[in-house]
């Protein structure tokens, strides 16, 4: 079966750094997305990785290792507005998005 | 670019009535649109994949006669919840696949459905 694992909830302090991990087992791989979703709102695109390595975009970076079936989202200089759920999603061999359950990130002052 | 709108944003209806939700890609043509449902504190659950001009493909456990999907044009897909019941109350989100190389899905803002 297809499976995406990410922690259910994480807590971090304002101004700090947090890493949200995602491991996956899917039938084929055509890329991995990270989305941010605030409560009551639709997901918004953060990053896309299809090759191994680190993609940096401002305070957010995303890493992928295809051989390990592993990705992480790194958030630096955390702000209160970063409190949200972070969803990992993998594009499988049929170009379908397989979604993780999401990681709820709580930022404390 | 790549904006998706959804209407209405909120709807409250009585049990037994039908509700139609529209999803539009405003500045691109979307050959494929997706309908998701999300219950509180849970992740997105794909209900169906809709291709323009053909019948939608429903995920296992989703009743196609209850959740009618029409994708008549490259910019519009509709989801009709027929004979709604309180357990259908949820956050319904559509997305449209863009023409980027990496199949990014662009999400609408969602529709909060409450069935009394």
Proportion of helical residues of chain B: under 10%
General form of chain A? globular
Biggest sheet overview of chain B: 7 strands, mixed
Give the CA-CA distance, first to last residue of chain A: 40 Å
What descriptors fit this protein?
heterodimer; A: mainly beta; 5-stranded antiparallel β-sheet; globular; B: mainly beta; 7-stranded mixed β-sheet; 4-stranded antiparallel β-sheet
Overview of the structural elements:
Chain A has no helices and eleven strands. Chain A is mostly beta strands. In chain A, the strands form two sheets. In chain A, strands 2, 4, 5, 9, 10 and 11 form a six-stranded mixed beta sheet that branches. In chain A, strand 9 and strand 10 form a beta hairpin. The relative contact order of chain A is 0.35. With 116 residues, chain B is mostly beta strands. The radius of gyration of chain B is 13 Å and the shape is globular. In chain B, 33% of the residues are buried. At the A-B interface, strand 5 of A face strand 10 of B.
Provide a quick synopsis of the model:
Chain A has no helices and eleven strands. By secondary structure, chain A is mostly beta strands. In chain A, strands 2, 4, 5, 9, 10 and 11 form a six-stranded mixed β-sheet that branches. A five-stranded antiparallel β-sheet of chain A has the order 1-3-8-7-6, with no helix packed on it.
Topology (SSEs and partners):
The complex is a heterodimer of chains A (109) and B (116).
Chain A: E1 3-5, E2 9-13, E3 18-25, E4 32-37, E5 44-49, E6 53-57, E7 60-65, E8 70-75, E9 84-91, E10 97-99, E11 103-108
Parallel strand pairs in A: 2-11
Antiparallel strand pairs in A: 1-3, 3-8, 4-5, 4-9, 6-7, 7-8, 9-10, 9-11
Chain B: E1 4-7, E2 10-13, E3 19-25, E4 32-38, E5 45-51, E6 57-58, E7 67-73, E8 76-81, E9 90-97, E10 105-107, E11 111-115
Parallel strand pairs in B: 2-11
Antiparallel strand pairs in B: 1-3, 3-8, 4-5, 4-9, 5-6, 7-8, 9-10, 9-11
